[in-house]
Design goal:
Radius of gyration: 24 Å
Number of helices: 10
Strand order of the largest sheet: 5-6-8-7
CATH architecture of the largest domain: 3-Layer(aba) Sandwich
Number of strands: 8
CATH class of the largest domain: Alpha Beta
CATH superfamily of the largest domain: NADH Oxidase
Bound molecules: flavin mononucleotide, iron/sulfur cluster
Distance between the termini: 44 Å
Shape: globular
Largest sheet: 4 strands, antiparallel
CATH topology of the largest domain: NADH Oxidase
Number of domains: 2
Length: about 300
Amino acid sequence: MKDRPGKTIKTGFGDKPARPSIDHYRCTSCGLCARVCKSFTILAVNGSPEIFPDNGLGCIGCGQCMLVCPRGAITVSGRGIEPEHSFRLPKKSVRASFGALYNLLVSRRSVREFRDRPIEKAMIEKILSAASTAPMGLPPSDVGVIAVMSKERVWELAGDICGVFKKWLIFDNPVMRALAVFFMKKTDAEMMEGFIIPAVRAITEARSENTDLLFYHAPCVLLFHQSPYADPVDGSIACTYAMTAAEAIGLGSCMIGTVSFAINREKRLKKKWGIPQENSVSMAMILGYPAFRYSRGIHRSFASVRYL
Ligand SMILES: Cc1cc2nc3c(=O)[nH]c(=O)nc-3n(C[C@H](O)[C@H](O)[C@H](O)COP(=O)(O)O)c2cc1C
Ligand code: SF4
Ligand code: SF4
């Protein structure tokens, strides 16, 4: 075994590997830790697990070895993970059945009408504790969240985004539209002409009449942002989990897609709203107590499913 610290993949947590440690007195050589370690930091040598800090990708701190070990013989420390983060899984009897989960999922709607009631911080903490369980491209999570906690501040954020939208509209003229046909993919040009420009125009015009068509006067906005080392979908996956958690505690939510394009290009806005310059916002989510409940669900299906 080589001396520590060994190597790893650089992320927002830095370039230091996590440190797995094996208690060989407890170990029964079942081999599970070596099987789950796809960084190949733990290998079975003559049936016994050994740590090779310089092998494979190096320890990324995913914790899989610590969590799979039936004897509690492995600890992993560093890079945002500590032994005390592991816990006993809930008993099967208290886990959601498929039916219970399905009923929750079909009950969720994108909510854009809210009661005039702020969201308590405890509710956000609950939602984020659930959302932080989301899978991520490269653990530990490199996703950050900005919680904008009042209607007034949400209105202010909407105003800042509308300022960016107005700049975009300068390019909405016959010359630029003609150029777009040559320089953009056909579907991108179609989306620009048929969706983005009309939507941005409607949002900015509504704002001049004190109507918020971007965040719908929600009392809270969560911005999910991630480091450049994270997978670009990490924040959006976390946001999806957050929406499901919100539904479970009786709150309404909706993803708001265009915000990320507007913020990510504006250093000034990133600074003002606390997003690290190197990070990018992947998704915004509005949140609030729904003004009313939907009476019915809807059967949906994927555009296509093929079994090969
Ligand atoms: C990636 C993504 C971006 C979205 N962006 C917006 C948005 O900017 N504004 C909005 O009102 N709804 C937005 N939505 C919500 C969708 O319009 C909504 O999911 C869709 O209408 C289906 O409704 P449901 O969620 O109630 O099933 C977005 C949804 C997704 C998945
Ligand atoms: S999972 Fe635990 S018991 Fe099994 S080989 Fe690894 S350290 Fe030993
Ligand atoms: S934490 Fe993950 S990468 Fe590190 S040794 Fe354990 S399984 Fe391998």
